[in-house]
Design brief:
Elements (H helix, E strand, L loop, with lengths): L3 H14 L9 H17 L3 H14 L4 H14 L3 H14 L4 H14 L2 H12 L6 H14 L4 H13 L4 H13 L3 H15 L6 H13 L3 H8 L13 H12 L4
Helix pairs in contact: 1-2, 2-3, 3-4, 4-5, 4-6, 5-6, 6-7, 7-8, 8-9, 8-10, 9-10, 10-11, 10-12, 11-12, 12-13, 12-14
Length: about 260
């Protein structure tokens, strides 16, 4: 999970909560209709319309602001309304300083804004929070991998996430990707294989192919690396940093972009 599934689950949850058969008024149906429109616009990357639908939902159900703040802030940021996203998050955090969804959203907004200092600051706030789950820590580790630079903090976070969820293949795949990036190929091969075994995969998935590509590229097998990167599929949902984006970056560096 690199963020996109997390947001998709939140959207789906908002749709489901608005369709309760026990609801005594038309408001839940109106909310559900708006949520479905929101999801359709989001899937097409039509962010101004996504924001409009999200704001309509909040107007219909003001009490849902805290529950919806992460997906609302995401839409605002994707529409280029970063200050509005921060303002929405400020409002939720002023009432609940420990709201983990708002903390994660701050990290996401900073990433979409392209502010490295804020990404580090808000990423630290996510991973150091007592309620931080393994996937929250993995999320930040993955993004730090994509940013590059000193990867020691990313490696430390990835190991911490694995300690919390030692049987989670996606989290182990992140660790393998960082190990491959840092040239620790023996560990990268071992952990990538472990992720596949835990997933009961017959064939590597996109994350596995990316790690294979990084290993082969580190070994100087440029053509094999390019072939592996080309097997990473495009994401089905919006992400702040997808495996596909990283694979395309490597293909460009190899002069083999497609």
């Amino acid at each position: 999970m690199r963020g996109w599934l997390w947001v998709g689950m939140l959207v789906a949850s908002s749709v489901a909560s608005g369709t309760s058969l026990a609801a005594p008024s038309a408001a839940p149906k109106a909310t559900a209709d708006r949520a479905l429109d929101n999801l359709a616009y989001r899937a097409r990357g039509r962010w101004p319309e996504t924001v409009a639908q999200s704001e309509a939902i909040l107007a219909l159900e003001p009490s849902s602001t805290a529950d919806r703040v992460q997906i609302h802030a995401w839409a605002l940021a994707r529409a280029g309304r970063y200050d509005d996203a921060d303002h929405a998050l400020d409002g939720v955090l002023a009432k609940d300083h420990d709201h983990q969804g708002a903390r994660i959203a701050r990290f996401e907004v900073a990433a979409m804004r392209g502010s490295p200092a804020e990404v580090i600051q808000h990423g630290d706030a996510v991973v150091n929070h007592p309620a931080a789950a393994a996937w929250n820590i993995n999320y930040v580790a993955w993004y730090r991998l994509g940013v590059g630079g000193d990867l020691a903090p990313a490696l430390e976070l990835a190991r911490k996430a694995v300690d919390k969820a030692p049987q989670d293949p996606g989290i182990i795949n992140t660790l393998a990707a960082i190990e491959a990036e840092m040239g620790d190929l023996d560990r990268a091969i071992r952990d990538n294989w472990k992720a596949m075994v835990l997933r009961k995969s017959v064939e590597p998935d996109g994350g596995d192919w990316y790690v294979v590509g990084r290993i082969e590229e580190q070994l100087g097998l440029r053509a094999d690396a390019a072939a592996a990167y080309k097997r990473v599929p495009a994401p089905r949902f919006d992400q702040i940093l997808s495996v596909y984006a990283l694979a395309q970056r490597r293909l460009a560096a190899l002069g083999a972009a497609h």
